[in-house]
Amino acid sequence: MKVLIVDDSRVMRQIVSRTLRQAGFDDLDLVEAENGRQGCEQVRSERPDLVLSDWNMPEMSGIEFLRNLRDTGDQTPFGFVTSEGTAEMRETATAAGALFLVAKPFTPEAFAEVLSPVLG
Q1: What residues have CB less than 8 Å from 20, skipping those under 6 apart?
Q2: Which residue has better confidence, 88 or 104?
């Protein structure tokens, strides 16, 4: 399975990759993007099975990225991995079509819990 990790921080993309392996998802094909605009391009070219996206990024935020995908009819499973996890943000994410929102700091156990239904 292919997972697209979208975050403007290279270090955070590496942490998400490492946490995926620690959660037991060590056979994934991981691709990366630095913001929502690049994420849209990667979804079209790479056809990932899941998108893990930060919320706050330059050029195009995570929520704008998700709304752009859904507006074009793309239904790729999408989850947020972000530093903020307010009830309002969770509501906004769900209303836009996100499957989950994992707030930082996160653990391999938190990843396993939300990703197992999607990645098997």
Answers
A1: 3, 26, 28, 30, 111, 115
A2: 88
Written as six digits, the tokens of 9 are 């921080």
Sheet holding 100-103, edge to edge: 29-33, 2-6, 50-53, 78-82, 100-103
Between the alpha carbon of residue 64 and those of residues 37, 68, 75, 112, the distances in Å are 9, 6, 15, 26
Summary mean pLDDT of the chain: 95
Q: DSSP letters along 14-55, please?
A: HHHHHHHHHTT-TT-EEEEESSHHHHHHHHHHH--SEEEE-S
- Give the CB-side neighbour count of residue 75, counting CA atoms within 13 A: 0
Burial of 20 (0-12, 13-18, 19+ CB in 10 A): buried
Q: How does residue 84 score in pLDDT terms, banded at 50, 70 and 90? A: confident
* 95: CB partners within 8 A, 6+ apart: none
In angstroms, the CA 62 to CA 7 distance is 9
Question: What average pLDDT score do residues 55-68 get?
Answer: 97
